[in-house]
Design goal:
This protein has 2 domains: about 60 residues, no CATH class; about 210 residues, no CATH class. About 60% of the residues lie in helices and about 5% in strands. The protein is built from 9 helices and 2 strands. It is globular. It starts with a strand and ends with a helix. About 25% of the residues are buried. The N terminus is likely disordered.
Length: about 300
Amino acid sequence: MSKSQLQLPSTMLHLEDPKSPLSALSISPAEKDYLKPSIIDSQVVLKIGDFESPSPSPKNSLNYIDSPREKNKPNPTVPTTTTPQPNEPVSVLPNLRINFMRKVFAILFIQLLISGVTVGLTFVPSLGVRHFMSTNLPVIIVMALMSIGALCILIFKRESCRKVPRNYMLLFSYTIGTSYVLGSLAAVTESNVVLYAGGATLVVVLAISVYACTAKRDLTSKGMGFTTLFTTMLILVIVGIVLRGHATGIALSGVVAFAFGIHLTFNIQKLTGKYEVQYSLDDYIIASLDIYVDIVQIFVAILNIFRKLF
């Protein structure tokens, strides 16, 4: 805006006018005569401040302050929030689920690595691990009790599964104890049978994982059915221990492998989060424990079948 002046015309204040503010003053007639020429000749000049527009665009100048803002147009100077609205889909949840699955698989990989190395040490005769594991029964009992104790705490005290580092200590105590028991079982079994059982378990687990991630049938909605299945399986195992038959042992091992295969499918579907029942994002220890138990039981069942067949 250029320089401008607003000049008001000369204003004559009639001192005799009763409405004039000066009429209320107590001044003498001589003072009134003295003031008349000054007031008549005075001019009031209103000067508007000089300033230049900070921007060539009229919308950025001060003269545009009264211009209406377009409706529903956000202010570019105010950062937009990333908080989702009530009706908007939360796009961050899939990323959280993927990170959760990665964490579970990382923990599971370490568990299986510990078990695989423990069993693999029995294949090296020069180390003496095979002889030690097959002859020291007290160590086997201690490791089995440690495994059972850690498992009971993880199952019956779920809050322990969410407290770091207690949850990791319990999980790997169970893993180390179970791995030692598996190594003792492998130490009294021929090495080629153990290798066959390990390869068959790998194929079965991979097939179940692919099916669980791609199946349209939701097994997570049939939780009570799994309870009945495992109760029946436990009764059959007790009957098989009493009978001690060759064919009965193979049949029961097949039933155990089949039951834990279905349960592994159930747990992997819970892990993906695409079905009715799913793991909470805080249950990474529980998810790792469930899947590890299923894989170990499948391996033991297949190993028992191969021991009777070969």
